[in-house]
Design goal:
The protein is an alpha/beta fold. The protein has six helices and seven strands. A hairpin with a 5-residue loop joins strand 5 and strand 6. Helix 1 packs across helix 2. The termini are far apart.
Length: about 200
Amino acid sequence: MTVKNHLIIFSKIPRYAIVKKRLANEIGNMEALRFYDNLLRRNLRNLGNDSRWNCWLALSNRRDKIRREKSWDCKFFFQGHGGLGFKMENCLKKVPDGNTILVGGDIPDIDRVNISNAFNKLRFYDLVLGPSFDGGFWLIGVKGNLNLRRKNIFNLFNSVRWSSEFALKDTLKNIRNKKLYLLSYKNDIDTYADLKLNQFLSSR
C-alpha cells in the first residue's frame, strides 16, 4: 500500500504589528507585514499544489482565514493552544496517517525539491530535521510508521528553548533510538541582518 505524504505549512495570518515583530522593530510594521505576506503566498504557490503530497495550512488562530488562490490547494486547520512545541505536536498528530513534514510558512528559498528530498529521506529514516543558521530548524519530518497517535515520541519537544540558538540542540538531545537525517541549513529571517544575509546567499 502506498504511504500518503502530508505537508503542513505552519503559519500566522499576515497581520499588521503581529507578524515578524523583531524585523518590524528595524524596518517598520508595514514593511515587515508586506515581506511576510509575500513570502507566505509565494511558498503556498510553490508548495501547495503538488500531487506527491497533501497540503495542509495550519493557522495560529481558530478564526483566521486567508484568501485562497487558484495556484494552491491546501486544507485549513487550527494549530491548537499552548506553546510552540505543543502546537507542532498537535499538527503532526492531526493529519491522517502517513509520512508528515512540517515547515514554517515564512521560510525563504524553500521549494518543491527541498520537500521532495525530505519525503525521500523518510523512506529510510524515522525523523528528518532541517537546521537553520540561527540555531533552530526550518523543517521537521516524521515517518508514518512511528504511529503518532499510539506512541508519544514527542518528548522530542520537551524542555526545548524555543526562539533561541539552543532550539535545535535541545531537540537533538531529546531524540532516542530513532534514525535521524539532517538536511542542509537554511536562513530564517527574524532581523534585518537575517534579511541581508539571505539576499547575499540568494545572489551567490
